[in-house]
Amino acid sequence: MSGILVTNGARSATGSWMLLRYLLLLLLWLHDTDSFYVPGVAPINFHWNDPVEIKAVKLTSSRTQLPYEYYSLPFCQPTEITYKAENLGEVLRGDRIVNTPFQVFMNVEKKCEVLCNFPNKPVTLTVDQSKLMAERIREDYYVHLIADNLPVATRLEFYSNREEEEKKKEKDVQFEHGYRLGFLDGNKFYLHNHLSFILYYHREDVEENQEPTYRVVRFEVIPQSIKLEDLKADEKGMCTLPEATGSAPQEIDPTKENQLLFTYSVHWEESDIKWASRWDTYLTMSDVQIHWFSIINSVVVVFFLSGILSMIIIRTLRKDIANYNKEDDIEDTMEESGWKLVHGDVFRPPQYPMILSSLLGSGIQLFCMILIVIFVAMLGMLSPSSRGALMTTACFLFMFMGVFGGFFAGRLYRTLKGHRWKKGAFCTATLYPGVVFGICFVLNCFIWGKHSSGAVPFPTMVALLCMWFGISLPLVYLGYYFGFRKQPYDNPVRTNQIPRQIPEQRWYMNKFVGILMAGILPFGAMFIELFFIFSAIWENQFYYLFGFLFLVFIILVVSCSQISIVMVYFQLCAEDYRWWWRTFLVSGGSAFYVLIYAVFYFVNKLDIVEFIPSLLYFGYTALMVLSFWLLTGTIGFYAAYMFVRKIYAAVKID
């Protein structure tokens, strides 16, 4: 990007606005792409009275961040419990998909039916079970069920504007994922023991003599708490729901045994929604208007600033290069100052070149993985119906991108006069993944202690280690070998044998000040999108606006490159040639703001008070910040390196 702007010179502002127009056109296309849906599975056609299986996924709470499997609580169980075979992503997410005893048949109504233990023998919760149930209700747990791979949702209706309530009685409808296990009223716990399922079907077009076929397109639930005495049930397991006004809720007293009935009803409605669009309800829960505003705002600000920065840098550079290349006045040349003075030291290898090249290799690995995942997801190929597909794809892509990470790390290590390529390759393959695995293992031990389904099972951990050492490590070695054998990067000037003395630097050239200054622009371009990503991760929301995310990623790359070039230019003008590590650190400055934002989000948006959930939040946040720093630091480093090579190639050096 910066290369285009440099070559265009004074026309860079015009180029920026042309690029802005094209990006806005791309944005219009991406908006449609958000609803484009490539089904992960084939649609299932049902005939009348065909069984529609209801499965349970897990229990989740944004207050504890610890998922539990469905039968960790004393719900009604079928005669034989069968768990679905899961992919890597589902296991890492804590999903444990299992069958349930709900009997639901296509387009067959059920007024009220007892789920298990007929009326003459209600379910009895022991004191320990009652305590556990009350604890989960207090922790605000949600139950997640699926029918035909479609997650259950609770409908929430409210008036958008109370002043206009009298003028129009139309309610805004939003959907909440799953349903609440129960509710707290004062110091009393109440369990949602009756579920009213509302399933919507779409009638498929068939020929006249064929039996009509149906497809499930929406799955809603209305949870209710109804006391045992108010559920009038007969010997056949049928029940009668009481009047809404006269019913008492089912209390769970954690100090004694509790008797209750689990009941459910089924209602079917025809819908115009087609099967391919059935996920739209779940994917349009976020406010798209905010996304539009944030993206357009980011695009305008970033490219306007990019245009200004480019013009300033280009004009200054042209003036510098013109002055440096004058050979008429020898006295002026003797008194020259600025970035040309450090030409004999600017490509001097830094300290710890192996660690620097290893971190940059991991950054390249992350960059390739994120770019491909976002692009593929934007095209709709990682649909939410394929549970865990996003995480599985990300894990495998990171492993296979090791060949690119190794190649770039090996070539840079050779350029920095490194010789121990085998040790460098091992460092690249193990430094960043080792830190990630170590933090995840420690956090996993705490999750194991809580008996949560979010704990990664030991066989899965062994499988991940086998992927790391069986796929990623050999590929990194392969890439490193070819990168190290390739010609090193061609630096345009020779390095002096004796290092030049660095003058005393001003206060604003301090590293930490540089990190604060450099991080503002990239973070400002993406922080609204960060809110939606955090909501998806920590509040169990679906995130599927990958069209927006792809554009934000492009903006992030451009802004990181621009700010890195500006910062390295100022540093070289101050005659400080130690730019290698500094550029890498300063370019990742927006990661510092991500950390600050994560603390703000924890304090203001989440209701986490216990130690282990807090530890999980900050542990995973540390991994996100580290990965983001590697990503942005790598982008900024390579942009600055290209810039430095260009400007020193443009001046005449004696």
Automatic annotation (TrEMBL):
This protein's source sits in the domain of life called: Eukaryota
Give UniProt keywords alphabetically: Golgi apparatus, Membrane, Signal, Transmembrane, Transmembrane helix
Q: Where does the record say this protein resides?
A: Golgi apparatus; Membrane
What this protein is called in its record is Transmembrane 9 superfamily member
Q: Does the keyword Signal apply?
A: yes
| GO annotation terms (biological process) | cell adhesion; phagocytosis; positive regulation of protein exit from endoplasmic reticulum; positive regulation of protein localization to cell surface; protein localization to membrane; regulation of intracellular pH; response to hypoxia; vacuolar proton-transporting V-type ATPase complex assembly
Cellular component terms per the entry's GO annotation:
early endosome; Golgi apparatus; membrane
Q: Which Pfam families match?
A: EMP70
Claim: Signal is one of the keywords in the record:
yes
- What range does the record give for the signal peptide? 1-35
The record lists the membrane-crossing segments as 292-314, 358-382, 388-413, 425-449, 461-484, 512-538, 544-572, 584-603, 615-644
Gene this protein is translated from: TM9SF4
Q: Which PANTHER family match?
A: TRANSMEMBRANE 9 SUPERFAMILY MEMBER 4, TRANSMEMBRANE 9 SUPERFAMILY PROTEIN
- Membrane topology, from the record: Multi-pass membrane protein
Record-stated family: Belongs to the nonaspanin (TM9SF) (TC 9.A.2) family.
